[in-house]
Amino acid sequence: MKQLFTLFILLFISQLSNAQQNTNLVFFSEQGQQFYVILNGIQQNVNPETNVRVTNLIQPYYKVKVKFTDGITPDIDKTLNFNPGTETTYTIKSSNKGETVLRWMSEVPIAQEDL
Questions:
Q1: So what's the pLDDT on residue 114?
Q2: Average pLDDT over residues 25-33
Q3: Is residue 19 pLDDT above 50, yes or no?
Q4: In b/e form, how buried is each residue of 7-42, taking b as 16+ CB within 10 angstroms?
Q5: Residue 35 near residue 66, CB atoms below 8 Å
Q6: Closest of 102, 85, 82 to residue 93, by C-alpha
């Protein structure tokens, strides 16, 4: 009985630690441009949106492509790295040089994000 209880506690703790390692990413366009987000070659949103949230990511690095639907704005290709267990927000905006860029905006632990 003690072994079963110990096994249950260890499984529970491992599940908690795994849940904290998942990461969420949020992308939004300041200018209201609609876009698709592609992470490591996999499209994340079915319809073009101005705000895209991707959940339960497990790797610390992703190759991201932001593909715009207006036919004018060039795609953005970038490698992102972020802290495990966080929700990280990136903004799509115009730089001082007139280019459309992807910039880190904020990061919050997932445990706080749901409050």
A1: 52
A2: 95
A3: no
A4: eeeeeeeeeeeeeeeebbbbbbbeeebebbbbbeee
A5: yes
A6: 102
